[in-house]
């Protein structure tokens, strides 16, 4: 009994002892670690934003260009137009016929008189053979009549001697003379017929030659319109089975530009005025030229006047129907004239700050520096700057109203 009581006492819990220390759970420790990392990242982001300041404005720029020296010119008007050819022909046969052979291809250069195509000459050859036979018949008839005339003339001469001796009657002599004169008339008619046959043969030769299509001038083939076996005609047959031409030839030496100038600005254009032409296909190629003529009529619907412009350069890259932009220039100054002062910049690069004209110059660190300007005259889309800028600098075009001196900018992606 005592032993059992002792055993029960040993199993009793001692509540007087202090409880063991309890640490934080693992999940709570990880939560505090994550919160700490987030706070560190937010602090770093705030510091970065404070260091960068406001975002850089995206701007467009343009170079500062020196004014043209002596002999230079300034554009007074711009216009758009197209390259045209003064000599261009769609070549066709003079007659209706079936194409036998075509000897041209697009882009091929042909000389004046060169054969471009031939037609089937079977009808023309038959007509020529007939006319040649008629000429031979007329000539053989002339030979027979000439022989008869010689005999009749000798007979009349002999009878004339006998009549004087009264050995033959006068009527016999008169019949011989009449026969001789009749043969003379027949011979004259035969000779005229032979001449007509010669002319008819020449016309037949032209008919044969009309089956050959030749180039009317030296140029380049821009279109091939017919194929062997097709029927061609100089006149439209009113259907889809007859061609009206063999091909189109353009004289590349006759290329020029035609532009349409608004009526309100045609007073700025004068004959022999220097121009500068830029092809839409070659934007960096400036072609010099001059005004040929101002067409003395206006387009009522468009309110424009057509102007012909000569190209100062002959080049294979210039082809008809190309789009162009033409700048009409002021008359060139003499070579010894004083060079104009200052530089020229786009007019949109000049803005107002505190009532003064200024421009923002781009620096090496992509920051802008505000420059107060002394502005000169307007030069079409540009402006003359007498002081404040120098050639070679880069200025901001269309600067935002919020742009200030020292601000950092970013270039437009199209200019990078």
UniProtKB/TrEMBL annotation:
Keywords for this entry? Coiled coil, Membrane, Transmembrane, Transmembrane helix
Domain Multidrug resistance protein MdtA-like barrel-sandwich hybrid, by residue range, is 87-233
Task: Provide the CusB-like beta-barrel domain boundaries.
Answer: 257-329
Task: Point out the coiled-coil segments of this chain.
Answer: 135-162
- Extract the SUPFAM superfamilies matched here: HlyD-like secretion proteins
Q: Where are the transmembrane segments?
A: 30-51
User: What InterPro entries does the annotation carry?
Assistant: Beta-barrel_RND_2, MdtA-like_BSH, RND_pump_MFP, YknX-like_C
Q: Does the keyword Transmembrane apply?
A: yes
Instruction: Name the chain's protein.
Output: Efflux RND transporter periplasmic adaptor subunit
Q: What organism does this protein naturally occur in?
A: Stenotrophomonas capsici
